[in-house]
Amino acid sequence: MRLGIDAMGNDNGPKPIVQGIKLFLDQDPAATVVMVGDRDRVTRVLIEEGIGLSNRLELVHAGQVMEMEDKVADLKKKRDSSIMRLVQEMKDGRIDAMVALGNTAAAVGASTIVLKLLPGVRRPGIAIAMPTRNPERPCVAIDMGANTSSKPSHLVTYGVMAAIYSEKVLHVNNPRVGLLNVGEERGKGNESLREAYALFENAPVNFIGNVEGGDVFSGNADVVVCDGFTGNAVLKASEAMATVMSGLIKDAFKSNWVSKLGGLLVQRSFANVKKRIDYAAYGGAPLLGVNGVCTIGHGRSRPDAVASALRAAGESVKGRVNEVIRDHIDKMRQSVRILPDKDE
């Protein structure tokens, strides 16, 4: 399997990406990774890390970089950017899946423009596996920022795609799909959410109705569907809360000698909890709905997060996620007519 990655997408330069690639290649001896980025900068890091190019590690030169402040419109001016070159590798069939780090809007824009969308999909969605009380059943939240506004038919498509990802990649049997709302009752929410609820009742998923914000983490749902504006707010608040809680617990253990002793006694348990809420463990976020396997990673990704993102991208290929999504969407359009023929 050949996996591509934007070697210029990390806030700290190519080094964490190169280190993450090495971790991944050590874990998967059958994989090949294609790095896309500035040849001179990446080569310097490879030399520093004592890593050489080989038949399992390749480098494709890209002379430009999409910076964090760049907009989607800037893709036209930066056709030689690493993200555009990476997506072209995907389109031309030279890689089986790709990992894009850093500028999420640029990754979504480039993937949508170059790869296009799967038949019947009108909006791509970013899906993120969130930790729950059950370590064996993370909750896939979608959409977490690809589109700030969504129509009812988009929400149903998100639910179908995320359920397939949950089943094929996270190995959750018959995932329970909930619609994020202000209450659990059927008539709750605005007109768009009420219409989406009605569409979900006829969709080929295990729909459990409306869910509330706390259900993302409680384990009561395996998939939670929301629009990109709300989903991104949930994501950013969750990341901040995890950081705050970790800091508060550390401070509490340092307050006096008794608490320091207690901290030593529970150190291993605390490390296990920290690992479960660590974003690096879940392998980035798949951009579902584009005509290619694309995983989006954080611009501050550590080497272990880079390795996890590559592994998750490979799992999507092995699970034939896009093929299954295409089949389900086609059945929805032809059989129950849930989805319109065009995005009106």
Q: What's the CATH class label of the largest domain?
A: Alpha Beta
Mean pLDDT: 87
Q: How much strand content do the residues show? A: 15-25%
Count all strands and give the number.
11
Helix fraction, binned, reads 40-55%
Count helical runs: 12
**Mass-distribution shape:** globular
Based on secondary structure, the structural category is: alpha/beta
Distance between the termini: 39 Å
Which runs of at least 5 residues are low in confidence (pLDDT < 50)?
none
Q: Based on the coordinates given, report the CATH architecture of the largest domain.
A: 3-Layer(aba) Sandwich
Please state how the strands of the largest beta sheet are arranged side by side. Answer: 3-2-1-4-11-10-5-6-9-7-8
Number of domain modules: 2
The radius of gyration is 21 Å
CATH superfamily of the largest domain: Isopropylmalate Dehydrogenase
- Biggest sheet statistics: 11 strands, mixed
